[in-house]
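Morning - beta-L-arabinofuranose inputs below, output right after.
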Amino acid sequence: MKHLISALALAALSVTCAQAGNPLFPKLFTADPAAIVDKGRVYVYVGHDEARPEDKDYVMHEWRVYSSCDMVNWRDDGVPLTPFTFSWARDKAWAADVVKREVDGKIKYWFYAPVAHKTIPGMSIGVAVSDSPTGPFVDARGTALVTNDMTTQTKISWDDIDPGVFIDDDGQAYLYWGNTVLKYAKLKRNMTEFDGPIHVVEVPNFTEAPYLHKRAGTYYLSYAQHFPEEIAYMTGPSPTGPWTPRGVIMGKNDKTKTIHQAFIEFNGKSYVLYHNAELPGGGEWRRSVAVEEVRYNADGTIQPIAQTKKGPKANPSPGCKRAT
Ligand code: FUB
């Protein structure tokens, strides 16, 4: 009996002390994290890097979702959608973003997905919707929300990627996106249409991955800058600025040039998800998602974030049912 009690105490201690361990999902190559918290559980959406070691480009045919009650133990929730969820799309499950919002009296999960368009050359952004954070998601419009011909600031075909969706406390939703040129537009309450024009934000050295979040009344617009990429951010008094540049918070990766961040508050702590290529066999197109705790200074600025192998400590969420 005494042995059983000590074993249980040890097990409890190891759960409390456990750390995520980066990369988070060791069975697959994963990239471009997006995250939401729902009913005390954190859901992380990733693109699946399926490139073979000899491939020289992204091979991404599906998004996957994982969830956790403590940021350490992860449940594989499968494939919530693929680019083929959109009948008008040709492939390329690039960096998506997800948000929860009630529309017409029902809580729904909205998935903004950059995909290659079948008939309009270039990348485009679709919107999918589900009643559950783990899907299945269905096309919410039947057409792309953004196509490459709607934006003409640059001639590249991949400037309409990397959606970052944000809903402010007053209910107004915003979609930021872009590669090379940073753009944003307001979304209507239905989450599937723009409410007004597309605006361009001039940001020196902007590459991609815009992500808007709010904390203690301050808006944070983070993004990947330069190439190889590093994570930089700006702060402002509103979701549309004016923006004050705050510099780099995470340096570039050794084995892949991209980094793609997402910020999340979970059970009283702040985290950033990002990718590197530290899983064995990793590389430019074989990336792996990781997480670190984020610490804010008293003035609201973000402390520099080191990439670690240990990851954050377990943070068991009392509101979460731990079915793994
Ligand atoms: O994963 C494909 C592209 O690489 C994403 O859209 C970018 O953010 C970069 O991570």
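Note: The first helix runs from residue 2 to 17.

O.
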